[in-house]
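[Automated response] Your request has been received and processed.

Submitted sequence:
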Amino acid sequence: MRFILISMCMKTFQNWRTMFIGATLCILATLVAHSSQAPYGMYPDWAKDTSIYEVNVRQFSDEGTFDEVTEYLPRIKAMGIDIVWVMPIHAIGVENRKGSLGSYYSIIDYKSVNPEFGTEQDFQEFVDRAHELGMYVILDWVANHTAWDHHWTKTNPEFYEKNEAGEFIPPVEDWTDVISLDYTQPGLRAAMIDAMVYWVQEFGVDGYRCDVAEEVPTDFWNEARRALNEVAQVFMLAEGQLPEFHDEAFDMSYAWRQMGEMRKLVAGEITAKDLADYEAFERNEEYPVEAIRMKFLSNHDENSWHGTVEDDYGPAAGVLRAYTVASRGMPLIYNGEEAGLDEMLLFFEKDLIDWRPHPERETITRLLQWKKGNQALWNGVYGGDLVYFETGAENQVWAFHREKNGDKILAILNLSPNAVTFSINDSALAGSYRDVLTDQLHTFDESEQFTLGAWAYLLLNAE
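Generated structure:
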């Protein structure tokens, strides 16, 4: 690609002096263009337009096995979701276990399947069915620590961090059911990468969500990514938000700060303008253009340890979900959100999701199908930039448009608990649009007045 561009540029210069100067400029321009492309191994093509769904196998059904999740896959697909992140599937340690069932993140063997969830064959059938549906499976990977009774404690005690007395130690004082791994040990790195390659090579897993990724050296993740890409083009999600993660190892990282900003907004601590300003700062100054940021209202940690979507966002939940879909990034749905999950699920015990009919399923489906079908909303470099409208009410209203390859969207969000009337005067407003949630048609001139109720919003697709 670079050589073709250079050759084309060379043809525009007629003598050696201008040719030399022109060639230099063309090489520099090409290198700049190349730097805006995804780094080594990133961006499987299938990740460009999708959203992600998190599965908690234990709480998914009364049986709590892969079979029930496999049966549900078409319904996940129907919502417009192609990536399924499965919480850890490995056998759980017994020593110092928390609760009667233990933590999914206290692993006794990285190459095992938790028998409570089914067999290796059951898991393979789950992966195969996902692939048949055009979906992709990423496993939750816990590289920071193991259970106390992992076999490495006997065969390779040097893999672990120890205190002055030579005793194994938890990575966090309260994490008493796990012990911390030592990434200064080359043998540990090799063993961990071997286990990660195993699931990709033997079961066709499509990537990993990497637990507490910031507590593991980034250079290990880089090394692991290179090894995995020798087997398949994987998708990697970091539970962390270091910008350096996107240099090589990870396609996507947690947008924790946006989650925090959303909660501050609901609490009245910041304004709509503050949220919009932070979005612009992150996009323009903090993260590379290739970075995909995972945006969410809930996940297993938030649900079990902080609160439900209703607890955390109240009447603002709808407009904030609209923000997570319409802005840059990939939205996450935690299993049960589509059923209006209204309880905090226990972490160490059985606690079933109530799979009731709920209007949230249709809302999520409309939003995520919209994202999938409109290139302006695609992920990373594939999507369109946010261009903000001036409203004169920026502390309450955030309005923007996005365009890509002929697709266009408008998002007009009242991020306040009060009704507001405002105007937009911008040529980019003019056109005909369909409301994503109601199918109502709108035709706007370049100057229009709007009134939105508390926490109300418009999501519009250009016709």
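Summary generated for your ticket: Confidence is low (pLDDT under 50) at residues 1-41. Residues 387-462 form a domain with the Immunoglobulin-like fold (CATH 2.60.40.1180).
If you did not submit this request, please reply to this message.
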